[in-house]
Amino acid sequence: MRHLLEGAERLYPQYLERLAELVSIDSGSLDARGVDAVGDRICAYLSAAGLGVERHRVAHPDGTRLGDAVVGRLTGRGSGPRILLVGHMDTVFERGTAADRPFSVREGRWARGPGVCDDKGGLLAGITALAQLAPDWDGGEVTLYCGPDEEIGSLGSRPLLSALAAEADAALCLECARANGDIVCGRKGVADVEILFRGRAAHAGIDRDLGANAALAAALATVELEALNGRWPDAGLNVGVLRAGERPNVVAGQARLVLDVRAEHNATFDAVLAAVHRIVEGPLVDGVSAAAEVIAPSPPWRTGPGQGWVRDEALLLARELGIALRAASTGGSADANLVAEHGIPVLDGLGPVGGGDHGTDEWLDLHSVVPRVALLVGLIRKVSEALADRGVLAREAG
């Protein structure tokens, strides 16, 4: 345990210097230039640690070029189970945010800045752990996936992430720990549902009766959709976007609604989406049609039978390191949901402790960096050894 902590402590100054560098780069999901600037530095960090590095072109389904995905590979002197680490380089912030709200450290402990927690602090913890492991690693391959578009549902990078997950025997995901320090052993499924209403525009004063009001249909749909809350104890819906019409003196000919759907169980997730489609297909307003599209669905992730041993290894190792640690499920979705589809054990929240994601008060507790990097290094070793002892692929147990 002392060796793990001393190794992480030795690399901490480098971690802090690199964190300031990454947070100072704007890298919104649709800012390919910014994401690639972060990717350039990630490639340099991985190469300096002795890892093999790959870059993969990524495009949005609509053809828009996104930043490259970066994949680092640590290959040991022996063969053995394959472990996948998962983090992301993009943020939710627009270009200019890093200048408006630059990286800072308060009271020697609280790091601030766009993406400091989600997920640059977590991704950098994975890179630091691999640098600590690299000199004497003798296990199987450890692959680090650095995604360019997680904040928009990994729409472009899903095929690559899926291929890497299909090759892995376990996955350790690098989203930061929850604000109370918990690691994450399950996440709700999440999907955006975009609903387009098409009515018939007309003059509001002269020919109002000739129109078909898409705004009214969207409003009625909003009431019905929000009323679904409470029907399933593990599900929630939120109409977050509602836009209609162009002028007050024109019956709205079109409207757009975007709904956030979350559920803990697969059966509930499917039931909620089915209920949404039934509402949309109903005759809300005469003359108004509606069509719904489910965008970037991420299915629920729950630790399955035979997979909880990874969580248990993390909790045991944390006690040995003197870290008070718990594991919890959370309502937020992440790439862990997509990886878990492949039936391998997954654990998330393995970055340092942080909070305020997506907001102006985002923070990272720098005092948690050394113990959490040490935990990650030890867990990679423990999981590799446990998988080797089992002599079977983890997905067979799950």
Automatic annotation (TrEMBL):
- The active site consists of D90, E150 (proton acceptor)
Question: Which cofactors?
Answer: Zn(2+)
Domain of life from the UniProt record: Bacteria
Query: Which InterPro entries does the record associate with it?
Result: ArgE/DapE_CS, Bact_exopeptidase_dim_dom, Pept_M20_glutamate_carboxypep, Peptidase_M20, Peptidase_M20_dimer, Peptidase_M20A
Keyword Metal-binding applies:
yes
Question: Which PROSITE patterns does the record associate with it?
Answer: ARGE_DAPE_CPG2_1 (PS00758)
Do you know which Pfam families this protein is assigned to?
Answer: M20_dimer, Peptidase_M20
- E.C. designation(s): 3.4.17.11
Domain Peptidase M20 dimerisation, chain residue ranges per copy: 186-284
Q: Which UniProt keywords apply?
A: Carboxypeptidase, Hydrolase, Metal-binding, Protease, Zinc
Query: Which Gene Ontology MF annotations are present?
Result: carboxypeptidase activity; metal ion binding
> Does the record's keyword annotation contain DNA-binding?
no
Q: What is this protein called?
A: Glutamate carboxypeptidase
Organism of this sequence? Nocardiopsis metallicus
